[in-house]
Amino acid sequence: MTDMNPDTSQKGADISRRDFLRSGAAVATTTLAPGVTLIAFGGSAAEAKADAGKRWGLLIDANKCASDCSACVSACSTENGWKGNGNAETDVQWIRKITLNNTETGREVTMPMMCQHCEDPPCVDVCPTGASFKREDGIVLVDKHTCIGCRYCMMACPFKARSFVHEPVNNQKSHAPRGQGTVESCTLCVHRVDKGGVPACVEACEATGHGAIIFGDLKDPQSDIAKRLVEYQSVALRPDLDLNPGVRYSGL
Amino acid sequence: MERTIYREIMATRPVWGLAVTLGAFIAAAMASFFYVEHYGHIVTGMNNQVVWGLPHVFAIFLIVAASGALNVASIVSVFDQTVYKPMARFSALLAMSLLIGGLAVLVLDLGRPDRIIVAMTKYNFSSIFAWNIFFYTGFLAIVAAYLFVQMSPGFPYSRVRVAGTLAFVWRLALTTGTGSIFGWLVARPGYDSAIMAPMFIAMSFAFGTAVFILVLSALFRLAGRPFGDQMMLRLGRKLAIFVAAVMYFEGVRHLTNLYAAEHVGFETFILTGGGTLTTLFWLGQVVIGGVIPLMVLFHPSFGKTAKAPLVASVLVIAGGFAQLYVIVIGGQAYPMEMFPGYEVTSGFFDGEIASYRPRWPEVLLGLGGVAIALFITGLGAKILRILPTNLSDANVGLNR
């Protein structure tokens, strides 16, 4: 799917005529509503902006994460237009706060959990149609046009990071299209990242003064995140699976 | 041995009655499908913890039984046991019908079933699901060709054997693929095991043979055609071997899990602390689906009657559903171990046993899949020369 949105199509988006012609829907998108991206992280459009020289990631410091704060969750919900319908079992959760209690020592920490944007994502491996995909810059997304709602990715994800949309959705955000019967998860606010911004959760955490989540390019040794990873001890979740997630935790 | 004559079954009143009943189940399944399609999966019991539910139990049962239903044909064409030859056509028909029924449930449960064309045109070959689409469609094509050559007068038998062998190899690959849907899920302690593939093959032999026995004898009764006791007992003995094989693989799977400290939690859950799942495992799968069928089939007096394989088949099917329910739901209900050494809590059921209660739309969809399979089988027997007119022991050379 080719994104012809004038706001976002310039950066690195080397769209060939073939790409353009291949996607009739893209033409419809432009005509329909210029300035509004109706595509749902469709393959080539999202890929077009991904820079293989980067690997976006998060470093979450559980020591700085306050147990009574869920600003990151609220910010994600507001930014991406997902919300609960009062049924915790079927409501979607792009990001959630979890509490860990060390059964030996009794030490308790809280921290946010979301898609870990793995280098070798099991969700991408198992997706029959290729709707689950990883961009060149490491962001793992769901192409809402080709997701058939089989939920195999949810079976495969070791982090319970994905949700199935059980009910009709309305008031969607143009930058985060959603659809009943498809699977969704944290996009690392790809729409912001592609414009040089940071994910909403990171911004919100910063605003509360906790600063527990750092976003940046893991491949850039000069980035704040890379420097901190060198300096402080951090862990990847489920290291036994060797998935090399883009999200790292410290203070566990 | 008298020559085998194949004839269509007659459209008698009971046959029509059965067709209408099955049609009603199919209509109910379609109504359920549109209901879920309209309101979303919120009207089912499935949720974000247990994402695959009862429809998948039905679908997998039918798909697994499909490859096993081909067993009788394979015994003839691959292993040269010609006594079963009169049933080989029916074996192929039933295999295709069951697969279609199972696939229908799987497809109708998708979040976006309208995008089936996407699934048929876009493939990710690192996904066993994508491979399975080829295994399933290939199976239908190969078995259809196999049935065609079996029914073609004068077709060289050596070629029929080639088709039968190909179908046999294909069905092994297909069931390996179905088992690997779970076996290759590395994240969940209840799956992540290479033994899933061979265990599913053993399950396919057991479930497929049980369904074969019941459907074939029902059709013979409907058509008023004779079915020999010795033939039935032979099928029963095969069923016994397959049931024992399933129990063996399940035993090894659980013992291996118990040996590994990291899987003890999951095993404890299934074997002792899983409530309904534990009951389904011990009472449903082990006792009803394993121990009692073997006792029935090997009983010194009842085991020698033609009723024994029929009773055992009903029990094996019930136990098979229980087994798949425990595998599919149990594997999801038990929480994933994301933080060893920590007690995890969240608003998203982390660290908790997930709950799942199937609702009517799921039940109706699943039963609809069974009805589709049986309807196609009956239709095939009605319009094609699939069923032999006489399977009495005297006619097939078993009267000794």
Count up the domains of chain A: 2
> Any idea what the radius of gyration of chain A is?
18 Å
In the CATH hierarchy, the architecture of chain B is Up-down Bundle
CATH superfamily of chain B: Formate dehydrogenase/DMSO reductase domain
| Helix-strand string of chain A | HHHEHEEHEEHEEHHEHE
Number of domains of chain B: 1
In spatial order, strands of the major sheet of chain A run 8-1-9
Shape of chain A: globular
Unreliable stretches of chain B, pLDDT < 50, 5 or more residues? none
Helix content estimate of chain A: 10-25%
Q: What is the overall silhouette of chain B?
A: globular
Euclidean distance between termini CA atoms of chain B? 13 Å
The CATH architecture term of the largest domain in chain A is 2-Layer Sandwich
Q: Compute the average pLDDT of chain B.
A: 95
Examine the coordinates and then state which fold CATH places here, giving the name of the CATH topology of chain B: Formate dehydrogenase/DMSO reductase fold
Rg measurement of chain B, Å = 21 Å
Oligomeric state of this protein: heterodimer
Biggest sheet architecture of chain A: 3 strands, mixed
Greatest contact between two chains: A-B, 55 and 48 residues
Question: Which blocks of ≥5 consecutive residues of chain A have pLDDT under 50?
Answer: 1-39
Protein architecture, described:
The complex is a heterodimer of chains A (252) and B (400). Chain A is an alpha+beta fold and 252 residues long. Chain A has two domains: 1-39, no CATH class; 55-250, Alpha-Beta Plaits (2-Layer Sandwich). Chain A contains nine helices and nine strands. In chain A, a hairpin with a 5-residue loop joins strand 2 and strand 3. In chain A, helix 4 packs across helix 8. Chain A is globular, with a radius of gyration of 18 Å. In chain A, 53% of the residues are buried. The model of chain A is unreliable at 1-39 (pLDDT under 50). With 400 residues, chain B is mostly helical. Helices cover 69% and strands 1% of the residues of chain B. Chain B has 14 helices and one strand. Chain B has helices at residues 13-39, 54-69, 71-77, 88-108, 116-121, 128-151, 157-183, 196-223, 229-259, 261-273, 276-297, 307-333, 360-383, 393-396, and one strand spanning 342-346. The mean pLDDT of chain B is 95. The chains are: A alpha+beta (252), B mainly alpha (400). The interface between A and B is large, with 55 and 48 residues.
